[in-house]
Amino acid sequence: ARTLAIPELVHEIANYLVLHDLTQLVSVNKEWRQAWTPHLWRDVKILTTQQQSSFIEPVAQEALFRNRSLVRLFWCRASSSANPLAALGNTYMQQPLHLTDLCFQAEINDPENQEPLFELLIIVLEQSHFLTVLDIPNSPPAGIVVETLLKCIAQSLPHLRRLTLFTEDEPYVRPYAVKEFLETVSAELEYLSMGIEFCHGDSTDSTACLSQPTQKCHPHPKLKCVGIYMDFSGDKDKTIVPWVLSGFLRGCTNLDVVDGQMHLSATRACWIWNYPSVREIVESVLGIRLRQFHVRQAATPRSDRDISTEITIIASGTCKGSDTSTSSSLVQEAWHTICIDKCPLTMTLTNDAILSAATSQLHGPYVISVDNIESMKSSDVQAVLSQDRSLRCLSSRLPPTILATEMISSPPWSCRFITILKIQISGIPRPDIYTDYKNRLAPTLLGVSMKQSRAIQRQVYSQLGQLTLLQTLCLGADSPAAELEVSTDIHGTPVFFDRRLQLRCLELTLESGLDRLAGLRDLEWLTVENMDHRIGFVELLWMEKTWPNIKRVKGLVRCRNKGEFRSGRMVPTGSVIAPGRACGSKIEVLDSNLWDQVTQNFDQYDFYNLTLVNKQLNTLFTRHLYFHVNISSKRQEIAFLTPACQAALLRNSAHTRRFSTRSDNPAVLAVIKDLPQGVLTYINLGSDARLTALAVEHLIAILEKNPFILSLRVLGAPFDMGLKSVGALLRAIGRTQMFLRRLELFEGHLGIAHPADLREFFETVSEHLEYLSIRCTTDSHVLSADEIVAMTKPIQGVQKKHPYLRTLRLDPSLPEQEWLDSNENGPKPWPMILVPFLEGCSDELQTFDDYEGPMDDSNQRRRPSWIHEYPEVRAALKKLIPVKFRELLFDAREDEWEFRDMDAAMQVYQVMANDDIPGQEPEICNLIRLDRFMTPFPTTFRNIALAARSGFVQKLCIQDGHMFQSEEILKILRKAIHVMQRIQCWGSLPVLYDHVMDPVPWTCTNLVQLDVQIRSVFRPDIRTNYRGEPLQEYDEAMYHEDFLDAVRLAHRSIYKRLASLESLQILTLGLKTEQDKLESKKVDGRKVYFDPLLQTDCLDLSLEYGLDLLADLRDMRELSVHHLDHRIGVKELKWMERNWLNLEYVAGVIRNDPKKPFGRPFAVEDPNPAECDVGFNLR
Question: Domain of life of the organism in this record (predicted)?
Answer without folding.
Answer: Eukaryota
